[in-house]
From TrEMBL:
Sequence ranges assigned to domain IclR-ED in this UniProt record: 81-259
InterPro entries: GAF-like_dom_sf, HTH_MetabolicPath_Reg, Tscrpt_reg_IclR_C, Tscrpt_reg_IclR_N, WH-like_DNA-bd_sf, WH_DNA-bd_sf
UniProt keyword DNA-binding present: yes
Highest taxon in the source lineage: Bacteria
PROSITE patterns in alphabetical order: HTH_ICLR, ICLR_ED
Organism: Gordonia mangrovi
Record key words, sorted: DNA-binding, Transcription, Transcription regulation
Coiled coil: none
Gene Ontology terms describing biological process: negative regulation of DNA-templated transcription
GO molecular function, one term: DNA-binding transcription factor activity
UniProt name for this protein: Helix-turn-helix domain-containing protein
HTH iclR-type domain boundaries: 22-81
Length: 259
């Protein structure tokens, strides 16, 4: 395995390497850049860097500790909350998106007195970039900074359902164990596409229900999603349609704010 101090091609920019290159720092930065593009397994990262698995594991452990990487249930490493916080989202940085959409979120929060969230799609994952908590004693806490499988969240379903099948196939094919969009996920998205909003009735966490709607760009791309979550006792199935109207209206207001 190579242990030289050469800086490699994945470093951006055209400047020459520094005279005292540090291989471990270079490799850690290369991992960060690779994970910005797609999820990767430990063995693939080690092979790409030409280092031992143990070396790659130590580098990844530190990146996870500092928030630059996360390890999912599927054993893939992906960009962590620090990278999501600074990465552009549909030509808008996450902080700009939050600033522009927050008034619509706050209005929904005040009208329902429930916790509301703003999230963005990152491949097969959804990343929560903002939450406003309700004030009721029994309420859902902030999810800001959290990353979850998109097809298991209401807002994630709404964003996925707005994408063409070819793009969904490509997203799932990026993971080695999948050859296109799994049928069970396709079945989940079909009613979301018809209704115009996603519902999560305890899928992510037992006792928590949520409704989410995609915020679309002028060219019909999902920029983000807004969702409201609450204890299941306050969101029985019979209330879903009623509250969905408020969530969808908030998404439309957010779209107006972005244009």
């Amino acid at each position: 395995m190579s242990q030289d101090t050469t800086l490699h091609e994945t470093a951006p920019g055209s400047d020459p390497p520094p005279p005292y290159a540090i291989a471990s720092v270079d490799n850690a930065l290369r991992i960060v850049l690779m994970l910005d593009e797609r999820g990767m397994r430990l063995t693939d990262i080690a092979t790409h860097l030409d280092v031992a698995r143990s070396t790659a594991h130590r580098l990844l452990a530190m990146l996870v500790y500092r928030g630059f990487a996360v390890r999912g249930e599927d054993h893939l490493y992906r960009a962590g909350r620090v990278r999501h916080r600074s990465a552009p989202t549909s030509s808008r940085r996450a902080d700009d998106l939050t600033r522009l959409v927050r008034p619509a979120l706050a209005e929904l929060n005040e009208s329902l007195d429930e916790t509301v969230h703003l999230q963005v799609l990152q491949g097969r994952l959804v990343h929560f970039i903002e939450s406003i908590e309700g004030t009721q004693p029994l309420r859902i806490g902030s999810r800001a900074g959290a990353t979850l499988p998109a097809h298991r969240t209401s807002g994630g379903k709404a964003m996925l359902a707005s994408l063409p099948r070819t793009e969904l196939d490509a997203i799932w094919s990026a993971a080695e164990e999948h050859d296109g969009l799994p049928q069970d996920v396709a079945d989940l998205l079909q009613p979301v596409r018809q209704l115009g909003y996603g519902v999560n009735l305890g899928t992510t966490e037992r006792g928590i229900h949520a409704i989410g709607a995609a915020i679309m760009s002028a060219d019909s791309r999902p920029v983000a999603a807004v969702s409201v979550s609450m204890p299941s006792i306050r969101l029985p199935r019979r209330r879903v349609r009623e509250l969905a109207e408020s969530v969808v209206r908030t998404a439309r207001n957010a779209e107006s704010a972005l244009r």
